[in-house]
Amino acid sequence: MKKDLDQDKTTSFKEITTVKHGGHKIRTGRNIIDRSKIGKADTTFQGEKIPNQFTGHTFKNKIEKYRLDGHKLIYHLDRILEWQRGERIAPIQIDMGLTKFCNVGCIYCIGVTQGGMTKGEMIEPDALMRFIGDCGRLGVRSIAYIGDGEPTLNPGLYDSIILAKKLGMDIGMATNGILLDMNHAHEMLRDSTFIRINLSAADPDSFLRIHQSSKSNFSMLIEKIKSLVSLRNQNNYDCTIGIQMVLIPENFDQVVKLAKLGTEIGVDYLQIKQCSDTEYKEIGINPDDYKKVENDLKEAEKLSTENYLVKVKWNKINILGETDLYKGGFRKYDICYGTPFLGQISGNGDVYPCGPFFGKKRFYMGNINHESYYDIVKSDRYWEVQEDIIKNVDVHCDCAVGCRQDYINKFLWDVKNPPDHINFV
Ligand code: SF4
Fold first, then answer.
1. Residue 337 beta carbon below 6 angstroms from any ligand 1 atom
2. CB of 197 closer than 6 angstroms to any ligand 1 atom
3. What angle do CA 250, 202, 178 make, to 5 degrees?
4. Dihedral of alpha carbons 148, 150, 152, 154, sign
5. CA atoms within 13 A on the CB side of 118
6. Nearest to residue 247, comparing CAs of 187, 317, 306, 177?
7. Which atom of ligand 1 is nearest to the CA of 336?
8. Lowest CB count within 10 Å: 85, 134, 204, 349, which one?
9. What is the CA radius of gyration of the chain?
């Protein structure tokens, strides 16, 4: 075979002796290729391409469809430039709860630690509509109903989705799905960018154990997800439908099962994420435990197909190792610059820079039940809090591990701390 290669090369390329190069030999001691012959050779040899024939790609990288384990701030350079000029920017995205209560009791719920849950407490529907209008005026680009209580318990949910879309914003929702009103399924699927079902168990017994909801709700939920997928497909709506698993030792045995279930019910993706704990470790997560489930996570990822993605958030699961974000349990940035770009609002309407700071009065910025969000974002108070975070918060000690802003914080840290010689790109 080696002989064939050499023979082929002599017909394709002329090798130049080292004499022409002043006797300089390179480390292999082989002759140097005559580059004037490049492009004139046969394009293949033994099934492989010879380099520099310029006849097309040998390998195609799969384009990331959703980028679930990363960020997309790089596509908002205009807002970054405004921020660098010191302007009082509007958030690109807002994550918010719509309520402060829930119809299930997931055993990993961080909402319980962030100011607690109170039945009936929510953002009032009128205030919610006013808030959506304010976001449109400010130039907010997306709103995600993520976090705190269950959004389907807020009667204003469906109208707010329609209004947000009408005002040109993208809107998505994470829900346990049990109370999703299928009478509103068409508007939801038409106007939402994504609907993500929080499902961390793959059978009725585990559903009861992890979500503390009845076994019968499990089957009902699965049927509901299937109906959503089918309605979406029949009507060619663009809405992405996914499921999210929060990984805790109690559901390690569910990883592969859930990945298989995702294929069966036709969702677009299953995202498997770390369980974020508080700075006081109230949920009792030991990131070291994730090592025990690594093989299952890899097996689950292999179930990905052209139309179904199983995505493990390795960047955050491997917090004790080294990832893009962490090294040995420490973040790879020292200052949180992300909160003006990604705002967070509690399910009772309180505006704070981020979820882990809900209930810490020092960082309270206002409440959208009583005030205009537009005015809050323009206020001195809002920017004093942002400044307080930059100057006084030690992200390695004062902050919850795996917070939402981690990805963009790392990016903004790099923007703020350029290396020498940046013009040598
Ligand atoms: S780094 Fe700290 S201040 Fe910044 S968003 Fe995360 S928890 Fe909040």
1. no
2. no
3. 105
4. negative
5. 9
6. 317
7. 4
8. 85
9. 26
- DSSP code string of 300-360: HHTT--SS-EEEE-HHHHTTTSB-SSEETTEES-SS---TTTEEEE-TTSEEESSGGGTT-
For 11-21, the pLDDT digits (tens) are: 456 667 777 77
The answer to whether the beta carbons of residues 243 and 222 sit under 8 Å apart is no
Digit-coded pLDDT (tens) for 67-122: 999 999 999 999 999 999 999 999 999 999 999 999 999 999 988 887 778 899 99
The candidate with the shortest Cα–Cα distance to 271, out of 300, 307, 295, is 300
Dist. CA 82–CA 67, nearest whole Å: 25
Q: Give residue 10's pLDDT.
A: 43
Q: Are 313 and 69 contacting, i.e. CB atoms less than 8 angstroms apart?
A: yes
- Return the minimum-mean-pLDDT range out of 52-61, 65-74, 207-216, 396-405: 52-61
- DSSP letters along 362-385, please? GG--EETTTS-HHHHHHSHHHHHH
Give yes or no for residue 317 CB within 6 A of ligand 1: no
